[in-house]
Predict the structure.
Amino acid sequence: SAALGRSLTAGTMMGAMLKGEQKLTIKVEGNGPIGPILVDAHANGDVRGYVTNPHVDFEGTEQGKLRVYQAVGTEGFVTVIIDIGMREPFIGQSPIVSGELGEDFTYYFAVSEQTPSSVGVGVLVNGDDSILAAGGFILHSMPGAQDETISFIEDRLQKIPPVSTLIEQGLSPEELLYAVLGEDKVKVLETMDVQFNCTCSRERIESVLISLPKTELEQVREEEEETE
């Protein structure tokens, strides 16, 4: 739940940077037990995602933070595919550096998009593993940013609590930015709603199944008890 929630949060924010009908797909392929994580996000706030093996538990917390790296793994790649409506999509990739996902997306922006950034993502998980709340931020250093501004933000990032703690305290998205940047440093230009939206349908699933070899279909039937 925590790993998918963090990935969906990052994907939603990255999707908000797109325009019109543009969309992106994120693949987090670590060597951890949950397997690949896949997220689709659109410029209009639509988002969906899944993990290959969702039934994975990992040990408690470390200094109040979930040990997400135990599920994701510490080796592998983050791949982002951005469809901007051209013939070929933009594809960027970077290695997983921690498996905590916030740091991994920070490294992705630095390596693949050459944009100095800071990504913070946090998820509050209930006792039954359902998601209570999730949120985060993405900060980009724009061309021409002054050194003192960058130093100021870096200093604040070192001092603020984890994102999940700020969410637990009931901070709104705007208040989360105030905590990161300082209230007098933030001007809200636009807000947007976010919603889960799956484009799957029975017809699309049937077309995928028809394209699979008979041996693979038989294997799925044997492994999954509730198949029709």
In short: The two ends are 27 Å apart (CA to CA). Helices lie at 2-15, 69-72, 102-112, 147-159, 163-168, 173-181, 202-211, 214-223. The first helix runs from residue 2 to 15.
